[in-house]
Amino acid sequence: MSKNKSLKVIIDTNLWVSFIISNKLNILDPFLYSEKIRILFSEELISEIQQTIRKPKLSKYFGPDTFNEMLVVFDPYIDFV
Predict the structure, then answer these.
(1) Which residue among 1, 16, 25, 31 has the highest number of C-beta atoms inside a 10 angstrom radius?
(2) DSSP per position, 9-45
(3) What is the pLDDT of residues 29-52, one digit of tens each?
(4) Residue-level pLDDT at 24
C-alpha cells in the first residue's frame, strides 16, 4: 500500500502514554511495517503528550528524552498535520 493509500491514524495521548509505560509500542509494528497506516501528529498532540508525561505521577516512568527518542523511531511512519 502506498503512502497515499495508507489509513491515517491519530493515537490519543492516553494510548501513547500507556504504550510507552508498558513497553508495548511494538504492537504497532505489523501495521507500520506493512505500510497500512500512517500516524498523524500535530503540534497540539505533541504538546499534550509532553505535558502529560511531566505530571508527577507519570514522570517517574519517563526519562528526559523518552518522548523524543520515540519520535525518532517512529519518524518514517509519521505525518505532521
Answers:
(1) 16
(2) E---HHHHHHHHHTT-GGGGHHHHHTT-EEEEE-HHH
(3) 898 888 889 999 999 999 999 999
(4) 83
CB contact set of 26 (below 8 Å; sequence gap of 6+):
none
Instruction: Tell me if 44 sits within 8 A of 80, measured CB to CB.
Output: no
In this prediction, what percent of the chain has a pLDDT beyond 70? Answer: 95
Distance between CA atoms of 3 and 10, rounded to whole angstroms?
15
User: Nine-digit cell at 59?
Assistant: 514522570
Distance CA 55, CA 24 (A): 21
User: C-alpha cell of 42?
Assistant: 500535530
